[in-house]
Amino acid sequence: MRYVSTRGNAPALDFAGVTLAGLASDGGLYVPELWPTLSPDEIGALRGLSYVDTAVAVMAPFVEGTLTREELRGLCDAAYGAFSHDAVTPLVQLDHDQWLLELFHGPTLAFKDVALQLLGQLFERFLKGSDQHLTIVGATSGDTGSAAIDAVAGREGVDIFMLHPEGRVSDVQRRQMTTVGAPNVHNIAIRGDFDTAQALVKAMFNDASFAGRFRLSAVNSINWARLMAQVVYYFYAAVRLGAPAKPVAFSVPTGNFGDVFAGYVAAKMGLPVAKLVVATNVNDILARALANGDYSSRAVVPTPTPSMDIQVSSNFERLMFDLGGRDGAALAGQMRSFEDARAIRLTNAQTQGAAGLFVGERVDTDEMALAMRHAHERSGQVIDPHTAIALAAAHRHAEEGVPMVTLATAHPAKFGDAVERATGVRPSLPPRVGDLFDREERFVTLDATYEAVSDYVAQHAVPRG
Asked: Boundaries of each Tryptophan synthase beta chain-like PALP domain copy (predicted)?
């Protein structure tokens, strides 16, 4: 398997290469040269398999030529062995056709663990025996940071620098990052929003002088390996609900478009996905883009769903590339226009290609709270605000006889204040993180400028040998 850049001007790489690189050298994102496919019989054979066995079957084509199935199985065993539920991503029934897919049973209580626990294993595997030192630079709107830090804390040959927007993540999310005392972990609070943090990270990758001094890599969903790992739970859920004999729909709380793009990959691989509901909060750039081709950035509005307070969704570029005929030069021109004007119109091919599978839905804070109350009162389920956004959108697209799976992306205790306001119930942190508020925090606060952040990274990172 080879991987190409969405902007068409970076060398094709193998799986190890794209995992360690993260962002392509031309500023694009890596995608497989061809989408692998599974036949209906191969998909049906996944029914009843463990999560690890499912993961090996789904991901094997993406790592071909780099890892054997046995090596991949060992990495998956290590990644998912510490999850608190044996099913890793269990399904919970809400009513006749509505389901929750619980993705928060990993060590940091969020869906990012499913991918990042594996990514940590992959980094260690690909660096083993070399003298390379990896400098991971990432931005988080809440959950990526803690999951990435947990995955690489204390590992040899790796330093991680994680940017988060000051005051715009929950207390639990922040403390899960800032209370990790490993010397290779560096937390940076920036005086700005997530989009600014993400832009600073991309700027470091695209600065040839800076990037040439360090071996940079990414843990955000710009890293292909992270998206690959997320494809697995779409298959795992769908075969338990009747696939491939019947289609299954998914509603996904969406900020950076990575999680829902993994659903698109599953569909490209042959999984019968009825629809992908792209559920946004009032920061609705994706809902507008899918509805009428209006991909225009506006000011970020802080909400009780901070992981979705995003107006520039990095992974949407991957979809634009694939639907636009995989024309890297054309896509690079589109992205330059967006970076200059913060607004573009999608092409007819892009809008028409998305229309058959994707539907965008904007859910406001009142509708979010109603969904939280509904889940608690009608189904006995306490859900976090992000999941509630997706559940509200799922209710709008319920279709008789078609299972609708809402991705439950975070444990409700990560957003205890919002949950309590909506339901009257204060969710407790699981015992494994119950002492979180007794731990000492360690982070720096910097201005949201390239000079401030890149200088800090340069002072604490290990240069190339």
From this structure: 87-324
